[in-house]
Amino acid sequence: MNYPSHLIEEAVNELSKFPGIGKKSAMRMVLFLLKQKEPDVLKMSDAIFRLRTLVQYCSRCGNVSDTALCNICNNPKRNQQLICVVEDLRDVIAIENTGQFTGTYHILGGLISPANGIGPDNLFINKLIERIRTEGTTEVIMALSATMEGDTTVFYLSKKLRDLGVTLTTISRGIAIGGELEYADEITLGRSIALRVPYQH
After folding, report:
1. Separation between Cα atoms, residue 138 and residue 111, nearest integer Å
2. How confident is the model at residue 145 (pLDDT cuts 50, 70, 90)?
3. Contact between 68 and 89 (Cβ < 8 Å)
4. Is the whole model's pTM more than 0.85, yes or no?
5. Over the stretch 70-98, which tens digit does the pLDDT of each residue have?
6. How far apart are CA 107 and CA 127, in angstroms?
7. How many other CB atoms are found less than 10 A from the CB of residue 26?
8. Does 20 map to a domain?
């Protein structure tokens, strides 16, 4: 692609680093930005800068937050003895959008995948165990994608948690086998949370 300006080329190259954004889409975004008023573009760039520099991760569950503890962990109306274990932030957002879950979360930061060099030590599993031991957790819901990596992680967690005196459940299989949690529709995902079943391995 030929560019009329080095500055445009530089902006296109940076914007095309976003997932799902190719050079043509990035070019449309650049042309859009050029048509905006300067204060609006500065406001947008400031929002991105503040996002990158000021957003924290909850010291308890790993959720993104503006403070040391996220809004969910800080909410006295949430069931603090109920933990829903998920892969990443996208799954928290998907489950929250169902309006069916009133407990807390624990973000693992990925799934066990030996093929990709990701083992248990690369995930926040020890932090989960520590939470269960110190917080009086009564139930752990394993809400992981129905993939080989998800099932492997659930099996590993079940072995690590079974002697901690908590009830282990998993979301019901309204989620298609091999499906990613974040792509499930809200009704199906909400029903899977509400109708969770005891985990058996």
Report:
1. 23
2. confident
3. no
4. no
5. 999 999 999 999 999 999 999 999 999 98
6. 10
7. 20
8. yes
DSSP-based three-state secondary structure for 104: strand
Tell me the two tokens of residue 77. Answer: 């109306």
User: 167 pairs with which residues across the strands?
Assistant: 139
- Of 68, 83, 159, the residue nearest 120 (C-alpha): 159
Burial 48-69 (b: 16+ CB within 10 A, else e): eeeeeeeeeebebbbbebeeee
Sign of the Cα torsion 85, 109, 61, 90 reads: negative
Residues 88 and 110: beta-carbon distance below 8 Å: yes
| Pairwise CA distance, residues 176 & 69, whole Å | 33
Q: Percent of the chain scored above 70 by pLDDT?
A: 86
| Unique residue bearing structure tokens 């932030």 | 89
| Number of domains within the chain | 2
Write out pLDDT tens, residues 39-60: 999 999 999 999 999 999 999 9
Which residue is it, tokens 């926040």? 124
171 shares a domain with 77: yes
Is residue 59 within 8 Å of residue 127, measured between CB atoms? Answer: no
In a domain, 65, yes or no: no
| Amino acid found at 191 | R
